[in-house]
Structure prediction request, 155 residues.
Amino acid sequence: MRTKAVYIFAGFSAILPDFDYLGFINNIPYNSLWGHRGMTHSLLFAAITGLIFGLPLSLLQKAPVIRLSVFFFLTTISHGIIDACTTGGLGVAFYAPYNTLRYFFPWRPIAVSPMGMGFFSERGLVVLISEMYWILLPCAGLLLLQLALNWKRKS
Ligand SMILES: [Zn+2]
Prediction:
């Protein structure tokens, strides 16, 4: 399952939900179903993305469809989960289209990112540091733990 294609699709699926930013350009209201953090951040969208990415890759990888589909579901929904831990904007429509309410988690330590070119500002730097602290460091820790476990298993 660990091939370059799987890693590339995993990374793409994790940023795919924010393609709803194109809605701002097309005047789709933020709080609508297809607005930012709406349908593309939902569990249903993650499930569909999981299947769309998982099916062809399972044929190429000769890996179980369910395993890759669940993997891509998790990489996609991780985006919404992280957004629900941010300090601003509207919440995440996890249950869209059935329920369009927006949700945040009670614990929201991650600074919300400014939209568009605002990211390339002093505020964007604060967000980047916040994301490094709350996302990159824990992921790096998990990666090191996995490497250590693999190393121990081989020796
Ligand atoms: Zn997002």
Q: What stands out?
A: The radius of gyration is 17 Å. The chain has two domains: 1-108, 111-155. Residues 17-18, 37, 41, 79, 83 surround zinc ion (CB under 6 Å).
